[in-house]
Amino acid sequence: MTVMVGAARRDLLDQVLRRLPAGTVREVPMFGTIAVMFDESMLVAARKDLCLLVRVTADDAHLLARPEATRAEMGSGRSMGPGWIRVDPDALQDEGTLDFWVAEALRRQAA
Fold first, then answer.
1. How many Å apart are CA 98 and CA 74, to the nearest integer?
2. pLDDT digits (tens, 9 = 90+) for 57-70
3. Edge-to-edge strands of the sheet including 41-47?
4. Of 7, 9, 58, 56, nearest to 29 (Cα)?
């Protein structure tokens, strides 16, 4: 199922979808984002500002050391806690960076 969104966010979602292995994929509008569900588990969500919310394993300190990564927040100053990372939209222009974050989300799901 494809959700109607602006062209830039649609492009980001399409880039994520191209990186997924075979499986059941759905796009779900959720809290101002478009979440990508893979085999009924949320992998990532594209926000209006074109950052990517990535669901990773709870032991994510090493991922937060990356320059493009910060702890995801639900509004100003309200951390989503371990396992939720916001990836800067400028960094996502690099295909290798996007590959890395999609792989991390798939790794969490496989655990």
1. 22
2. 999 999 999 999 99
3. 25-30, 33-38, 41-47, 52-55, 84-87, 69-71
4. 9
Distance CA 64, CA 45 (A): 18
Q: What is the token pair recorded at 93?
A: 């222009």
Per-residue model confidence as pLDDT tens digits over 19-49: 999 999 999 998 889 999 999 999 999 999 9
Alpha helices in 1-111 (DSSP H): 7-18, 61-64, 95-110
Q: Rounded CA gap, 53 and 92, in Å? A: 12
Residue-wise burial string across 75-110, b where 16 or more C-beta atoms lie within 10 A, e elsewhere: eeeeeeeebbbbbbbebbeeeebbebbbebbbebbe
Check if the beta carbon of residue 37 is closer than 8 Å to that of residue 78: no
- 101 is written with which tokens? 């974050």
Q: Does residue 73 sit in helix, strand or coil? A: strand
